Amino acid sequence: MGSFYASKVFPRYPPSTSYLYSAIFTLLESIIEIGDGSCDFWMDPWLHSGPLLNHSAGLVPVNDFMTDGYWNLLKLHEYGPNDQVSNILQCEVRRERSDEVIWKASNHGNFNFKATWQLIREIQPFSGVHKAIWYKSIPKKVSFTVRRIVQSWLPVDNILQKRGITLASKCQFCGSGENIDHIFIECEMAKSVWQYLHDLFGIQYKNYSSPFHLLINWLDKSPIVGHIRMVIACIALWAIWEGRHKNKNEDRVISKATILSRIFQQIKLLGDGGIFKPVNWRGDLHRVTSFGCNLRVESPSLPRVVKWTKPPDGHFKLNTDGASKGNPGESGCGGILKDKEGSIIMAFGVYLGRETSIVAELKAIQEGLHKLCIKGIRDVMVETDSQLSIQLIRSTCCNWKLRPMVNNIKDMAEICNA
Ligand SMILES: [Zn+2]
């Protein structure tokens, strides 16, 4: 009978694995006759007495597996999921506090709309060209224009025609039909500007198919992000668009020389503003004078003397450090324990996998203290170069992901008298 109702309501019956199915089955007092057995063992009503889930002993509170606020290992092994016991033991218990719901998407654990938006929004892959367009040394007015060019978002004649506006399409430089590829690539005016810039930087001129294709080539010829070549390419696109705009709306005749002088003027302005450093001109430093730019040469930073100081009499000193290649990235941590004479008592190094730099720093302290606890070494001074770690340990850690580690460090520091 249950099969009959279910097949009327849900043509895909069976299998049924959702709560909705189970709820409807319960309401209709239905039952599943076992065939290939693909229905859910716990949730589906394949037994006359109803779903097996209903026959469990009822809700079991977590503290049924604890004694005096600590995990009861015996009980966990006896009744708990055996493959999860080690995970359960690593779960921090915050004694003398009630259970608290943590919103995992935020650092502080409280619900907020910003974190929710980050969770649900679709993040488009960010191409190298787009990253270069928005680099900090490129003025925002240029970045916005270049983005509109590569996305074909400019109100050029052929696009306006497609939107139903009746007009005669005419390139403001040569009189041909106007579209984005023509203005920035195919027009003789654009070609002559690009030819000049290619020659200036010793880049081979190609038959580009679009502004995006051209930018890829200039990016390919740039040794670093934010290199002058990429900045020049973006500013040139912007200057061509500005020239077209002035020709059309201000009834002025903008020549190749005017566009080039606009490009040079912009580069000089940025250079005088201290935007460029020698690294931005890597490989092209001899061309700086052509633009009349002043490069800000920073004086090399002097080496700083770092000295290890002895701990007081009867004390040991634990020096720790953690590092990650990227944040997060491949990371590791290590430490060294010395006595007051500077003799090495113990040293360690641990590979941590992909972690953030703060986790690597905290992990170094945690690992060091853990080894001290095992060896029974007391009266220890802990030294780290991570100011953030010190702040987190001294204050009440508000980051729910770091909190268990910080609390563990505090507990072990107390044991080691650190
Ligand atoms: Zn043209």
From TrEMBL:
A single MF term (Gene Ontology): nucleic acid binding
SUPFAM superfamilies associated with the record: Ribonuclease H-like (SSF53098)
Domain named RNase H type-1: residues: 312-418
PROSITE patterns xrefs: RNASE_H_1
One Pfam assignment: zf-RVT
InterPro entries: RNase_H-like (IPR053151), RNase_H-like_dom_plant (IPR044730), RNaseH-like_sf (IPR012337), RNaseH_domain (IPR002156), RNaseH_sf (IPR036397), RVT-Znf (IPR026960)
The protein's name: RNase H type-1 domain-containing protein
Species name: Lithospermum erythrorhizon
